[in-house]
Design a protein that fits this description.
107 residues; alpha+beta; Ybab, Chain: A; three-stranded antiparallel sheet; 2 helices; Nucleoid-associated protein MC378_04070; DNA-binding
Length: 107
């Protein structure tokens, strides 16, 4: 019995390490989002850290328009990054979880 428990604990530690490695790797995965007309480009990591924002100078004269562009483009970029992050983290976590009937945590 304790052998199985020890093995499960080891497996959980391996999983935790894979999750941490995945978090670190996701810092290098860049997600780009460009506004429909190309006036704003945003780059962020899959961990949702903004790395760059490029703004067309024509938007600098109208603060309200600039804000609208930023909100729309940032939200799209964050949505993309979140999907990548959640998918990768689920794969990392699922790899070390034993197959226990009824415990489908990461589908």
């Amino acid at each position: 019995m304790f052998g199985d428990l020890s093995g499960m604990m080891h497996k959980l530690k391996e999983t935790q390490q894979k999750v941490e490695e995945t978090k670190t790797r996701l810092n290098t995965v860049l997600v780009d989002e460009v506004a429909a007309d190309g006036k704003i480009k945003i780059t962020l990591t899959a961990n949702r850290e903004i790395k760059a924002i490029s703004i067309d100078p024509s938007l600098l004269s109208d603060a309200e328009e600039l804000e609208d562009y930023l909100i729309l483009t940032l939200n799209k970029a964050i949505e993309k990054a979140t999907k990548i992050n959640e998918n990768e983290m689920a794969i990392a976590a699922k790899s070390g979880i034993p197959n226990i009937p009824g415990m489908d945590l990461f589908k």
